């Protein structure tokens, strides 16, 4: 399960990464009540970089990427996205959310809207795009994720894999500069994982900046520039995929990899 | 199939089965009967007992209400004479003549008879205002107006035959024809936004029609009564409590502590007090607070109290719907950059309200029936109008007929609401198959 490798074997990892910073996280801490979830996290993501975050359950991976688009508030440290520092200022939060797309484990499509409406809603209301243009763009992205023919169905009528691809298209319709993925394939049946991973590989090839929480190590090897390993709210190890998998440094990384690659 | 294959695979299907109809006992009328009425011994006993009870009671009821009933009489004594003469000593029958005589009063209270076309017109316009809210196209309006015109024609024929006089062409007829035709011609789904403008304009139009002003003769609130009063209170309460309830529910779930506290206190206070108390406050206590000499319309005060009361219940029903939505819906809306009101209006409320439909309609029905409480503060709703009739020497002794009539009218309205909510649920379920 952890080793389902995407078929298109293009060496995405070799794609160019610019020197501009997309996301900068400095000394960030977060607590849930008394519980210290994220401890002094530092992470810099360059434009066009693709980062895979992995780690045991409860290590704070979701919390970390949810802080980046302010779905969770951090209590200390800095998060700077595209030059805008995240504060409690609602205007800044809205601006950052426009620029950061997010794909959830459970898709979170809007069940009362058609696939097309799901995709055009945010462009129309947030970007004030004319409906016609929003429809065109949505159809383009739905074609990119290979389900244009489902445009007028409702989410409940689609398979899990199709729904997740719609969720990806929905985010892309806002033309974000960064995409966050929180275990996008872990709620899917094995035969659907591949279609979603393929879509993500295609996306990586367009040079999108991506932060992806996943346990799909095949995907990490093929696509990531960097793999970040978290444990107990801390970034324990961060390295290029090749050395990360072949030559992990930290004890906990070794333990984690031995467990996840065992089957 | 080769032998080797047969050895390695334990079972391989060789034929494809054609679909067969289900056994008789599980479908059709017989199936329904066995499943629903005679599925077990105890079920069968209950069914038999219920049928026996119906057979025992129904003939007597029909005899009293229909066969032995009297529609035209001047007094209860005359009613009884007619029944005795026709069906012998000791026969009983319903004396509907009282309804016949007081029908106008039950409908309009003491609204001046010459001006009753105004509430009539307001009622027709109410249908026009409701259809675009309740349905997707305006076709039901055309149907409703057609039914209305047919009923009016029937009444006219009846009046003609019995020697009464009925004006066939009044403002209501004209309005019904105009809106019926408009609905037929411009009734598609696309025109709905334009019709909704009429809905928004309706409260103003209804206000002037009912109370007068703008060149129309004014009518005092004290003259309002009967089902007119019920409808005014019920419709205002329903139309006002939904938006107010939504705002209260959102306020109670808000992150702003002061707003949250205000909404919570309001809801808990209103829910903790009986409606009748609020109505007494409206009718008497407010007079002490208002500057002397102000004559703040009593019906208006009741409208405000009933709306506030219903909105507190509505808020809790809707809060339940909001809480039932998966957190992911809120997060997805946030992550796309929708602001608070956008995500509420476009994502959260459409789904939360849909979940809450049964509770919302339940509150509506409760509110509609609670309007009868205003008779306690001496407003002339149908129950209030009953009191003078009960103590009137002409009709003294009549009880059942009046209660049955009023109950029947309420039942029609409440049943219609209940059926509409079921229709709406089916329609919405068809739209999004989860
Ligand atoms: N809203 C919350 N309130 C309190 N504690 C929380 C909350 N959300 C998460 N936690 C705790 O914070 C820790 C980190 O959670 P998080 O969801 O980020 O883990 P994760 O690495 O994504 O795990 P998984 O692989 O299971 O998704 C967990 O111990 C979790 O119990
Ligand atoms: Mg997680």
Short description:
The complex is a heterodimer of chains A (263) and B (434). With 263 residues, chain A is an alpha/beta fold.
Give the SSE layout:
The complex is a heterodimer of chains A (about 260) and B (about 425).
Chain A: E1 21-32, E2 35-46, E3 50-54, H1 61-68, E4 76-81, E5 84-85, H2 90-99, E6 100-103, H3 115-125, H4 131-144, H5 160-172, E7 178-182, H6 190-205, E8 209-213, H7 217-223, E9 226-231, E10 234-239, H8 241-246, H9 251-260
Parallel strand pairs in A: 3-8, 3-9, 6-7, 7-8
Antiparallel strand pairs in A: 1-2, 1-4, 4-5, 9-10
Chain B: H1 3-8, H2 28-36, H3 41-67, H4 76-87, H5 97-108, H6 117-134, H7 139-161, H8 171-185, H9 192-211, H10 226-252, H11 257-272, H12 275-289, H13 298-324, H14 327-335, H15 340-370, H16 382-390, H17 400-431
Helix pairs in contact in B: 5-10, 6-7, 6-8, 6-9, 7-8, 10-11, 10-13, 10-15, 10-16, 11-13, 12-13, 13-15, 14-15, 15-17
The complex binds adenosine-5'-triphosphate and magnesium ion (MG).
Tell me the number of helical segments of chain B per DSSP (H or I, 4 or more residues long): 17
Overall helicity of chain A: 25-40%
Main pleated sheet of chain A: 6 strands, mixed
Helices and strands of chain B, in order, run as HHHHHHHHHHHHHHHHH
**Cofactors and ligands present?**
adenosine-5'-triphosphate, magnesium ion
Second-tier CATH architecture of the largest domain in chain B = Orthogonal Bundle
Number of helices of chain A: 9
| Mean pLDDT over all positions of chain B | 85
Helix content of chain B: over 70%
Bulk shape of chain A: globular
Computed structural class of chain B? mainly alpha
Mean pLDDT of chain A: 88
Tell me the radius of gyration of chain A. 18 Å
Q: What does this entry look like structurally?
A:
- The complex is a heterodimer of chains A (263) and B (434).
- With 263 residues, chain A is of the alpha/beta class.
- Chain A contains 9 helices and 10 strands.
- Chain A has helices spanning 61-68, 90-99, 115-125, 131-144, 160-172, 190-205, 217-223, 241-246, 251-260; strands at 21-32, 35-46, 50-54, 76-81, 84-85, 100-103, 178-182, 209-213, 226-231, 234-239.
- In chain A, the strands form 2 sheets. Chain A has a 6-stranded mixed sheet, with helices on both faces. In chain A, strands 2-1-4-5 form a 4-stranded antiparallel sheet, covered by helices on one side.
- In chain A, strand 1 and strand 2 (35-46) form a beta hairpin.
- In chain A, helix 4 packs across helix 5 (160-172) and helix 5 (160-172) runs parallel beside helix 6 (190-205).
- Chain A starts with 20 loop residues before the first strand and ends with a helix.
- Residues 1-10 of chain A have low confidence and may be disordered.
- Chain B is mostly helical.
- Chain B folds into 4 domains: 24-61; 68-101, no CATH class; 112-218, no CATH class; 224-434, MetI-like (MetI-like fold, Orthogonal Bundle), CATH 1.10.3720.10.
- Chain B is 71% helix and 0% strand.
- In chain B, helix 11 crosses helix 13.
- The radius of gyration of chain B is 28 Å and the shape is globular.
- The mean pLDDT of chain B is 85.
- Classes of the chains: A alpha/beta (263), B mainly alpha (434).
- The A-B interface holds A 69, 71, 94, 97-98, 100-102, 104, 106-112, 121-122, 125-126, 154-157, 170-171, 174 and B 326, 328-329, 331-339, 342, 346-347, 350-351, 354, 431-434.
